[in-house]
Write a structure and sequence with these properties.
It is built from ten helices and ten strands. The protein is an alpha+beta fold. Helix 7 packs antiparallel against helix 10.
């Protein structure tokens, strides 16, 4: 059982370290240089993040978003690393000339809207947390991250990665790490860490689908589509529909995500493979959503949201724990013998996770 009286903010990036590690070893300095600097910067930021045994709501700024609208502030780091940077756009102000700022502002708003309108959640913490984001972080920075308090976006190196504000699901992904921080607070290692990453992919995808008005059948189920430069042989960072198929590139290598437990990856890198094995619960959600049809944020999303926020998910939950709770939620919400319960049960069976 998780207790939400204390939070340990986790430094979460959208580009996995195994991708940057491979880039950092490339013979071309135009590719290896930015990757090496990004890895170094990520390590610094991870060490710099707030280290406390208690991360309570008292630590949150006193300002709150209005009951039905976000409270966004955008900052420009000016290609430096001091956070948050110079304020460049406040809530309610008109779009400026900087497309990156405008995309980040819109993405923060879209994330707020999905959580508010679909799940009646008032911002990331459920209590009107202001949404702060910094753009143009560092030079050629190949990542975006949530540091426990705010969003930060790099511009990419232009060779492998483009501007990290381009895919709205990347923005939703990172902000959902904040939702997880304030709810289940899943440990960022191994299977609970992969669930943490998967929750961000699930709701990042739902935010994109909600914004586009797409059904489960219409959605591409890709995370980070539009982020890879044209020269890269790939379509996104991850695929929920077909884990392991997002990219296959001479420079990046091949997408290592498994779709089922048969191919579960045991590794000590990437916090025990959190960005890799997340493909398994990702695929389970895709199977549930497409089996049910319609808008995925409604029935499938409601089940996943209830488990994340319901207080029963252990901080060190395994896939089997999560699967069991989704079945329990489906039964509670929709009843025994319901299409929803059948879809959940079948999906976990297909990916090789037992419902206990």
């Amino acid at each position: 059982m998780t207790t939400n009286g204390g939070f340990e903010p986790v430094f979460c990036t959208v580009v996995p370290p195994h991708v940057l590690d491979r880039l950092a070893r490339n013979d071309d300095p135009a590719l290896s240089g930015p990757a090496q600097r990004t890895l170094m910067r990520d390590s610094e930021m991870r060490g710099r993040r707030r280290v406390t045994t208690e991360y309570s709501l008292a630590a949150v700024p006193q300002a709150k978003a209005p009951s039905d609208r976000p409270l966004r502030t955008l900052y420009d780091a000016g290609h430096k690393t001091d956070l948050p940077g110079t304020e460049v756009r406040a809530e309610g102000s008109d779009p400026g000339q900087d497309a990156t700022v405008n995309r980040a502002y819109a993405g923060l708003g879209a994330t707020f809207e999905l959580y508010m309108k679909a799940y009646a959640r008032h911002s990331i913490d459920g209590d009107g947390l202001p949404l702060d984001a910094t753009v143009h972080f560092d030079e050629d920075y190949n990542n975006a991250f949530w540091n426990g308090e705010q969003m930060v976006f790099g511009d990419g190196d232009g060779e492998i990665f483009l501007d990290f504000t381009i895919p709205i699901d990347v923005i939703g992904h990172e902000l959902t790490h904040g939702v997880t921080q304030y709810t289940a607070n899943l440990t960022y290692y191994g299977q609970p860490g992969a669930l943490n990453e998967s929750m961000s992919d699930v709701f990042g995808s739902l935010i994109k689908q909600y914004t586009l008005g797409q059904t489960a059948a219409e959605a591409d189920w890709l995370i980070g589509a539009g982020l890879l430069a044209p020269s890269v042989s790939g379509k996104a960072l991850r695929s929920m529909k077909e884990p392991g198929s997002a990219y296959d590139d001479d420079v990046l290598g091949k997408d290592p995500q498994p779709a089922t437990m048969d191919d579960f990856v045991r590794t000590s890198r990437d916090n025990g493979g959190v960005h890799i094995n997340s493909g398994i619960p990702n695929h389970a959600f895709f199977l549930v959503a497409t089996a049910l049809g319609g808008h995925a944020w409604e029935r499938a999303g409601q089940i996943w949201y209830d488990v994340l926020t319901g207080g029963e998910l252990p901080t060190k939950a395994l896939f089997t724990d999560f699967a069991g709770l989704t079945a329990k939620a489906a039964r509670r919400l929709y009843g025994d013998g319901s299409d929803e319960l059948q879809a959940v049960s079948k999906a976990w069976e297909q990916v090789g996770v037992r419902i206990l």
